[in-house]
């Protein structure tokens, strides 16, 4: 993702124990435009069928290899995100919305409930990377597949596609999954993905023409011009979803697998106070306690449409 200027910057106010600061305006992380539009070469390297589980486990970095296909980032605009996921096949009864505060009830009241998936955009800071490395150190690579999986997780192997992976995590799990239109591109993608192990599942996304076409269609949306595909970015998406067993899961394609962050009550959604304490607030607290002052965070939520 990349920080882009916006005429309507989003401000997320954090807990009073943290310093309330403006966070990222619209953040980009999706999409493909013709190379000629940006005057930069955009090549399509070979597919990742050579990628094996052992190579994934042995990699020093969780980021995509430099030879991997890259998407030109797309603005993190709820309207654009909603259009993209609707084009893929999610019912228009659901849409993405900005979250302007996680502390002020009068602002949270503007968000339709229940909140089915929460996308957090955050800086990949030194503090975060130290935490990630330490937490993942003793974890094995996730190998789950099939209809018995509690959550469907996707490994990211396309550069600058963390927003796409976040969207897919949001609609592939929990109650949102029930709102995928039958016979749609999204329904077929999910049906094909569920039986596959993570490596093959990642290759499925890598080769999906439906995903690239949806990106191309979304290229004209947003308030700002998209940067080139080879732009170096330091912001990242993570998605929080609630599983059928009422657990909050952190879904991130840069990690070794899905992360169970704890149990929620049946009536608590991903924007409930307990879910925020188990998820988003921990990101904020780590940065605040490190003294680095890195608080470029923003949130969008998947919930019922306002129309």
Automatic annotation (TrEMBL):
Keyword Manganese on entry: no
Database matches in InterPro entries: Papain-like_cys_pep_sf, Peptidase_C12_UCH, Peptidase_C12_UCH_sf
EC supergroup of this enzyme: hydrolase
Site residues by UniProt (Transition state stabilizer): 156
CDD domains for the chain: Peptidase_C12_UCH_L1_L3 (cd09616)
PANTHER family documented for this protein: UBIQUITIN CARBOXYL-TERMINAL HYDROLASE
Protein name: Ubiquitin carboxyl-terminal hydrolase
Species the sequence originates in: Lophiotrema nucula
